Amino acid sequence: MNLQRVCCLVTLSQVMKVASLRGFQSVAVLARDKRAELRLNTAVVYRCCSTVQGEVRVRFAPSPTGFLHLGGLRTALYNYIFAKKYGGTFILRLEDTDQNRLVPGAAESIEDMLEWAGIPPDESPRRGGPLGPYLQSQRLDLYSRIAQELVERGHGYYCFCSPQRLELLKREALRAGQTPRYDNRCRHLRADQVQAKLAQGALHVIRFRLEAGVEPFQDLIFGWNRHEVAQVEGDPVVIKADGFPTYHLANIVDDHYMNISHVLRGSEWLISTSKHLLMYRALGWQPPTFGHLPLLMNSDGSKLSKRQGDIFIEYFCREGVLPEALLDITTNCGSGFTSKR
Ligand SMILES: [Zn+2]
């Protein structure tokens, strides 16, 4: 199977998914009418999918805390195909802000394996690009500036709670059979108390103030979604005590400044999207469109584990598996295509 055919098949699947969303009915009809033609001619697919407005920029954003595995390759592949379908840009961004868990060599290997598989990024740490750098550890000033902006706008605050206090809160919650959550205590510190603690050099993090009243969003795959996060979670940390951002802040800042139009990521992030949308709202930014991709599972329904050696792309590369064959399998797993081959 060549890649053009892969693109074509996934395009059909995507078109039919999009067809089920409100406001895209005409695309559905067009897709049905043109099905035979679409299989043969990618140019037709291009015209048929012109409902996506503006420049398409998508990203694959793994953290180099491990090597690329089948699940990651599949997420990258869907992003790549989506970008190519719309004449857009496929970006590789490495989320290396958890410095304690970095695996030596993983960052280089992830990009090597994307190239080996035939889905190279257009912009990446190695290739560069107009909106880099593409390594989060090189963008710390930006996150810190945005976190300050959140504090100044009243959407963020300094938290001076010690790790011991947080651990105690957690233990108390577990003892009471409740889900542990931060109690938002530092929300209520007065400005002069905050200034005094900062002047003393007290260790602190910055938290984002979760507001009630989350608006629903339409996910490309899962449809309408909404999680009233303030009811179930304490205010999340956005800048850690070591000055590094957490995933929640870094990913929205980068998606905004890298002009990402569509976020296509694993469905484990679906539950966090309302929180991210609250942050977009607080900063007055237009959010991207979200599409959460179902995860690849083992045949017994269990999650793929990094402890399984035979899920890593380097393993297949070493074993002499052809990249086209691997892409074919990855494309078909969980794709929803009806034809069994
Ligand atoms: Zn606190």
Question: What are the key terms here?
Answer:
10% strand; three-stranded antiparallel β-sheet; two-stranded parallel ribbon; 42% helix; disordered N terminus; binds zinc ion; 14 helices; 9 strands; mainly alpha; Glutamyl-tRNA Synthetase, domain 3; 341 residues
Explain this structure:
The protein is mainly alpha-helical and 341 residues long. The protein has a domain at 152-239: Glutamyl-tRNA Synthetase, Domain 3 (Glutamyl-tRNA Synthetase, domain 3, Alpha-Beta Complex). The protein contains 14 helices and nine strands. It has a three-stranded antiparallel β-sheet. The chain has a two-stranded parallel ribbon with strand order 1-2. A two-stranded antiparallel sheet has the order 5-6. The longest helix has 17 residues, at 3-19. Mean pLDDT is 84; it is low at 1-51. The site of zinc ion (ZN) has 5 residues, from loops. Zinc ion binds next to loops.
